[in-house]
Amino acid sequence: MGDSPLGTIELAATSFYVSDLDAALSWYEDMLGLRPMAVGTDGHGYASFLMGSAIVVLEPFEAALEPADPGGENTTINLVVSRDPDMVRDELIERGVTCGPLVASPNFVSFLIRDRDGNRFYVTRPVSSEAKDAVNQLS
């Protein structure tokens, strides 16, 4: 493989742009039970969450270099969980999170949730031995 013009990539993080950072922080805490690993400011406020080995950064819409309408992008964070997705879905619904239906494929059982600004998460669990092996190789 040739040298990348990017050099060594130290870290990759996904940014979600939100209409109200404080309200988004409350939603992620109250609905998903997540606590930010960092909250700060760099021209605009932000909050970072560690989700598995991925970092998701919440930033206000005005911080986006090329802002899009809320929920207008097709970016989706896939959260691979070890718990039964049906149980996860039930608990999220009890907290007031709108969840899509459970969808089974040959390798995964998944459902979709959106945060209050339309950013998408697929909560998924591998069910086939091939999918479990593939996920284990990544972690």
Question: Which structural traits does this protein have?
Answer:
2,3-Dihydroxybiphenyl 1,2-Dioxygenase, domain 1; alpha/beta; 139 residues; 3 helices; four-stranded mixed β-sheet
Description of the structure:
This protein has three helices and eight strands. It is α/β, with parallel strands linked by helices. The protein has a single domain (13-138), classed as 2,3-Dihydroxybiphenyl 1,2-Dioxygenase, domain 1, CATH 3.10.180.10.
Blueprint (SSEs and pairs):
Blueprint: E1 13-18, H1 21-32, E2 38-41, E3 45-51, E4 54-60, E5 76-80, H2 85-95, E6 103-104, E7 108-114, E8 120-126, H3 129-138
Parallel strand pairs: 1-4, 5-8
Antiparallel strand pairs: 2-3, 3-4, 6-7, 7-8
Element-by-element helix/strand order: EHEEEEHEEEH
Over the alpha carbons, how many angstroms does the gyration radius reach? Answer: 16 Å
Full CATH superfamily name: 2,3-Dihydroxybiphenyl 1,2-Dioxygenase, domain 1
Main beta-sheet annotation:
4 strands, mixed
Shape call: globular
Beginning-to-end CA distance, first to last residue: 23 Å
Given this structure, which CATH class is correct?
Alpha Beta
Counted up, domains total: 1
Number of helices: 3
Strand fraction equals 25-35%
Flag low-confidence runs: none
The whole-number mean of residue pLDDT values reads 87
